[in-house]
Amino acid sequence: MLALLVPVCAVAPWAISWQAPVANPSADPSAVIKQAVAAQGPKKRVPVAPSAAVVAALSKELADPAGQGYDKPVSSKQAAAVRTTPGRYQTVGRIQIPRIGLDVAYGEGVHESVLERGPGHWPGTALPGGAGTAVLSGHRNTHTAPFKELDMLRPGDKIRVSVGKGKPTTFRVLDTTIVPEAKYPAFVLKPAKDPASRNLTVFACHPEGHPIFRIVVRASTTGPVKKSDEGGR
After folding, report:
1. Spatial CA neighbour of 199 closest among 233, 170, 178
2. Which residues are catalytic?
3. CATH code for the structural domain at 90-225
4. What is the pLDDT of residues 57-69, one digit of tens each?
5. Alpha carbon of residue 129 to chain centroid
6. Which UniProt keywords are present, listed alphabetically (predicted)?
């Protein structure tokens, strides 16, 4: 449940499709969900809209238990009270993978409207270069097909990812895993053992054109260095 809810609660890139009135911030972010559920009673009253600050606080509240290795249960009724729609496309930065000649911009979000323009950053995960694990998704054989050759990557290969106009962070590939479609969200969103580490996960459908699996490449700033790269990092 956590893996599905945290991205939904992220403030960007999703534009919350609530209608006024706006709820007052609360010391207990969970209270906002209760207000929203109550507002959607039998008479279908207008939902109570939480402020951006409250949504951010709620996202943090739900994400914190993940670092401790357990989920924080939230009922399906509560989850349904948080409604989102894709927001305007926003470029976050660039991803470069020398091994496969990739150098493209990536956007915020993993909705199809984002992925049809290139890779997308999974909302709620760390930004590349920050503490935690940044997750990027992309297509292999449709639209721009940025991740077509993910299967060519080997341990130690470089993946450089920037945020805005900042200096790119260099990650080193750790491993590649093929995961069943039903299990990939939990796999790609699994918290790192060391919350202070800086990691990157990129994934796409597998095999090409048949989304019954996902190919998942995991990398870290402390990944293995190839001998050919020593002295030229």
Report:
1. 170
2. 139, 205
3. 2.40.260.10
4. 666 666 665 555 5
5. 14
6. Hydrolase
